[in-house]
Design a protein that fits this description.
Number of helices: 9
CATH topology of the largest domain: D-Amino Acid Oxidase, Chain A, domain 2
Radius of gyration: 21 Å
Distance between the termini: 18 Å
Number of strands: 16
Largest sheet: 10 strands, mixed
Shape: globular
Strand content: 25-35%
CATH architecture of the largest domain: 2-Layer Sandwich
Length: 388
C-alpha cells in the first residue's frame, strides 16, 4: 500500500548513481486539467465490505537471504511491509535462484500468500518438486486484502535501512516490474494500467525519483499549478493496478498446473519446520517469521480498506492527504477501494469505526475537490486537507 510522503528510495546513493537513476519528468507550472474527473461516490450506503490486514514490516527492509540449519537450507523471503504483491516477482525470482544454488530439487515453500504462490510457481517452472505448506491459503491471506497499486513504498525506515539494502531494493523493484508486464490485460489476471495522481499541498523540493526509477512510469508529469485536484503539487503518471481477487486466484492455479502441491499445515516451532522432508525451505511466512525464526524486528502495520460499489466511469486512481491522514482510491472491476490507514504496531483485526468515518468523509471531500475547478470551490473544502 503506497504512502504519499515517502520519496527516500535513493537517499544514500552516490551522486553519480543518483544522477544516473533520476530521469527528468516534464514540469508544467500552469498546465490545466485535461478533463474533469468523474466523481467518486464515497458514502456508507455504497460500502460492500470493509477488511483489515496486518502488513509484515521490518524497519531495515525485507529479508532475502539463505540460512543454514545443519543439512537444511532456509531461504528467507519476508518482511515486505505493504509491498508484498508489488515486489513479489523481484524477490521471488531471487529466492528461487538461491534455492537452485542449494543443489537439490525438492523444495518446501512456507506461506500461502503472494510470496509463497509466486515462489512456488517460479520454482515449479524451474523443475523443482515443490510443496507449499500453509496454515492460511487463498482467498484468506493478508495478500488478499492488499490495495496492490504498483508503487512499492513504505517498506523500510530510511534511518535504519543500510546502503546495501537501498541498492538491492532498487534492483529488486525494477525486476518486480518486469515480472508483472507479461500479465497486463491478460484475461482473468486483473492486471492493467491505471492513470494515477499523487497530490500534496507541499511542493517537493528536491524531488526524488519514483520507486525503481521514473522510466517505469509512462507519461510522468510534475504539476505545480492548476492541478487536477487543486493542490499545490501533483505527480501524474501511469502505473500498474493489480486486483488480488483475480490475480491470486490465477497465480495459485498456475502454480498447481506447474506441478506445485498444497498442504494445509500449521507450524508451531522451528523444530517442527526443520523436520520437513525437503532439504530446501523457502520461508514466506511474513509476520509468522517473528515466532518461527525469532525475528524481533518484525512490526505489524494495520491496514483497513473499504470496498464500494463499482463505478465503471472511474478510470483513475490517487493518493493524497486529508481528514487527518493519508488517503488512496483504487478502481477495480469489483468496486472502488478506499484506503490510507497505517496503524504501526496495531494488531487489532476489528473494523475501526473511527477510521471508517475518516476514510469515507475524507474521500468524499476529495471527490468534491476533484469535481470543481474554481479556486473558490477548492478553498471552501481546503480545511480537510491542511498539513499535506
Amino acid at each position: 500500500m503506497p504512502e504519499l510522503a515517502r520519496r527516500s528510495l535513493l537517499l544514500g546513493l552516490s551522486a553519480a548513481a543518483l544522477s544516473a537513476c533520476v530521469s527528468r519528468p516534464v514540469s508544467v507550472p500552469g498546465a490545466p486539467a485535461d478533463r474533469p474527473f468523474p466523481k467518486v461516490l464515497s458514502r456508507r450506503d455504497r460500502i460492500t465490505r470493509t477488511v483489515v490486514g496486518l502488513r509484515p514490516f521490518r524497519p531495515q527492509g525485507f529479508r532475502l537471504e539463505a540460512e543454514a540449519f545443519g543439512e537444511k537450507t532456509v531461504i528467507h523471503n519476508y518482511g515486505h511491509g505493504g509491498c508484498g504483491v508489488t515486489l513479489s516477482w523481484g524477490t521471488c525470482q531471487r529466492a528461487a535462484v538461491m534455492a537452485g544454488e542449494a543443489g537439490r530439487l525438492d523444495v518446501a515453500v512456507l506461506g500461502g500468500g503472494v510470496m509463497g504462490l509466486t515462489s512456488a510457481l517460479i520454482l515449479a517452472r524451474r523443475g523443482h518438486d515443490v510443496t507449499v505448506y500453509a496454515d492460511v491459503m487463498h482467498p484468506n491471506t493478508t495478500s488478499n486484502v492488499a490495495g496492490a497499486l504498483w508503487l512499492p513504498s513504505s517498506l523500510y525506515d530510511r534511518d535504519v535501512a543500510s546502503e546495501d539494502f537501498l541498492r538491492l531494493n532498487w534492483q529488486v523493484t525494477r525486476e518486480a516490474h518486469r515480472g508483472f508486464l507479461p500479465y497486463v490485460n491478460r484475461p482473468g489476471y486483473g492486471v492493467s494500467w491505471v492513470h494515477h495522481s499523487e497530490v500534496s499541498e507541499r511542493v517537493r523540493e528536491p524531488r526524488w525519483a519514483l520507486p525503481g526509477g521514473d522510466d517505469l512510469y509512462p507519461g510522468l508529469e510534475v504539476l505545480t499549478a492548476q492541478t487536477r485536484f487543486g493542490f499545490a503539487y501533483e505527480e501524474r503518471y501511469h502505473t500498474l493496478m493489480i486486483d488480488p481477487d483475480y490475480y491470486l486466484d490465477m497465480l495459485m492455479k498456475d502454480a498447481q498446473l506447474a506441478g506445485a502441491r498444497f498442504v494445509s499445515w500449521r507450524f508451531e516451532t522451528l523444530d517442527e519446520l526443520l523436520a520437513l522432508p525437503e532439504p530446501v525451505i523457502v520461508n514466506c511466512t511474513g509476520l509468522g517469521a517473528a515466532k518461527l525464526f525469532a525475528d524481533e524486528t518484525l512490526i505489524p502495520i494495520r491496514g483497513q480498506l473499504s470496498h464500494l460499489l463499482p463505478q465503471p466511469e472511474i478510470d483513475y486512481s490517487y493518493t493524497g492527504w486529508g481528514n487527518g491522514g493519508s488517503l488512496y482510491m483504487f478502481p477495480r472491476k469489483t468496486g472502488l477501494v478506499l484506503g490510507g490507514s497505517h496503524g504501526r504496531g496495531d494488531v487489532s483485526m476489528d473494523v475501526s469505526e473511527e477510521e471508517l468515518t475518516r476514510m469515507v468523509d475524507g474521500h468524499a471531500a476529495l471527490a468534491e475537490r476533484a469535481a470543481f475547478s474554481t479556486s473558490a470551490s477548492n478553498q471552501a473544502i481546503s480545511g480537510l486537507f491542511s498539513g499535506a
